[in-house]
């Protein structure tokens, strides 16, 4: 079996800025990055006051670190890890912030007919994608893991802000939603600090274009070809809009000539097939990140019938000839 963690061009999305004409008043450009939540968060911001720009970026990155300590399932001391350890033994009271996120995930699960599901933690482990590059498990391992997978196994109590697992072995994974939450928080902080033009990126897979850069109609981005390095399949402009991309090139391995990616159908226990990448635009990054998964897993016809009214969906399907197009 030959294994690969990702293509060299793993991020399906590339951020792109073109030179702009000088505005009437001098506009400063500040760019900075921080490593958190298993990815690189980058902010490009424009403004006239350097001190304000620097303070806004510093506050934003402090928030990313705080969210990493809240949501990480790799840090034993995080609130998310404590919930995973204790919720099978009884209700665990969690912060309002964490409860609201888990509750939102339950709604995404219901709306997507179970295709979005943060209880996939056991599947990530037996398929080797938790801290690893992937492996082909035995069917008995998959059956065992599936007994602990399913959003119906998570019981929420809004009055007490508590989370309870209905059986041992349930483990929630924030990987399909955490970056979206963080990007939204950063955009909110930038707005609060009077920054009207910024691009927030979480590893290139979830981004938010705040306002417009000087001299432009919006933030220009390109969607990469899911298989061919250096090629692109679509250009678009973001203005007060988020975009998230999920694809097979992020994490995968090959066994018996077949590619298995880290995007699982929680209802079968196997990686989803038939799609190469899905990009979703939406006013909130939380929504765009969450909706890439059910569109990827359930396919074009389902996405056409069920996508949220404010969302746009761009799919690259795995056919004899790769077919990439926006849903109408």
TL;DR of this structure?
With 328 residues, this protein is an alpha+beta fold. It has 8 helices and 19 strands.
Give the strand tally: 19
How large a portion of the residues is in β-strands, by DSSP E? 25-35%
Shape: globular
Radius of gyration: 20 Å
Q: Provide the spatial order of strands within the biggest beta sheet.
A: 3-4-8-9-12-17-18-19
Any idea of the CATH topology of the domain at 79-176? T-fold
Percent range for helical residues?
25-40%
Order of helices and strands: EEEEHHEHHHEEHEEEEEEEEEEHHEE
What is the CA-CA span between the terminal residues?
40 Å
Please work out how many helical segments DSSP would assign.
8
Q: Describe the largest sheet.
A: 8 strands, antiparallel
Report on the architecture of this protein.
It is a single chain. This protein is α+β, with helices and mostly antiparallel strands and 328 residues long. It has a domain at 79-176: T-fold. The protein has helices at residues 50-71, 79-86, 96-111, 121-126, 139-146, 178-192, 285-298, 300-306, and strands at residues 2-4, 13-15, 28-36, 39-47, 92-93, 154-157, 162-165, 197-202, 206-210, 219-224, 232-238, 241-247, 252-255, 258-261, 264-265, 270-271, 275-282, 312-317, 323-326. The strands form five sheets. Strands 3-4-8-9-12-17-18-19 form an eight-stranded antiparallel β-sheet, covered by helices on one side. Strand 10 and strand 11 (232-238) form a beta hairpin. Helix 1 (50-71) runs antiparallel to helix 6 (178-192). The protein is globular and about 65 Å long. Mean pLDDT is 91; it is low at 1-24.
């Amino acid at each position: 079996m030959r294994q690969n963690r990702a293509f060299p061009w793993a991020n399906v999305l590339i951020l792109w800025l073109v030179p702009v004409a000088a505005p009437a008043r001098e506009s400063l450009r500040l760019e900075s990055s921080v490593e958190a939540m298993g990815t690189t968060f980058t902010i490009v911001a424009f403004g006239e006051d350097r001190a304000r720009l620097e303070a806004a970026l510093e506050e934003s990155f402090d928030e990313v670190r705080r969210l990493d300590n809240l949501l990480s399932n790799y840090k034993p001391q995080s609130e998310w890890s404590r919930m995973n350890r204790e919720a099978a033994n009884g209700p665990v009271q969690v912060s309002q912030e964490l409860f609201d996120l888990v509750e939102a995930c339950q709604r995404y699960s219901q709306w997507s007919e179970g295709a979005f599901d943060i209880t996939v933690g056991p599947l990530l482990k037996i398929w080797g994608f938790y801290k690893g590059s992937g492996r082909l498990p035995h069917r008995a391992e998959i059956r065992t893991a599936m007994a602990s997978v399913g959003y119906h196994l998570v019981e929420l109590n809004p009055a007490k802000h508590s989370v309870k697992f209905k059986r041992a072995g349930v483990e929630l994974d924030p990987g399909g939603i955490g970056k979206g939450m963080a990007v939204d928080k950063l955009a909110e902080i930038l707005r609060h600090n009077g920054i009207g033009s910024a691009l927030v990126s979480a590893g290139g897979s979830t981004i938010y274009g705040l306002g417009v850069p000087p001299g432009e109609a919006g933030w220009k981005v390109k969607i990469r070809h899911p298989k061919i390095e250096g090629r692109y399949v679509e250009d678009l402009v973001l203005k007060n809009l988020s975009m998230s991309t999920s694809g097979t090139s992020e994490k995968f391995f090959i066994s018996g000539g077949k590619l298995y990616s880290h995007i699982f159908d929680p209802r079968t226990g196997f990686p989803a097939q038939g799609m190469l990448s899905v990009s979703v635009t939406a006013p909130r990054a939380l929504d765009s990140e969450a909706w890439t998964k059910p569109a990827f897993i359930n396919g074009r016809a389902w996405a056409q019938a069920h996508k949220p009214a404010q969302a746009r969906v761009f799919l690259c399907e795995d056919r004899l000839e790769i077919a990439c197009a926006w849903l109408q």
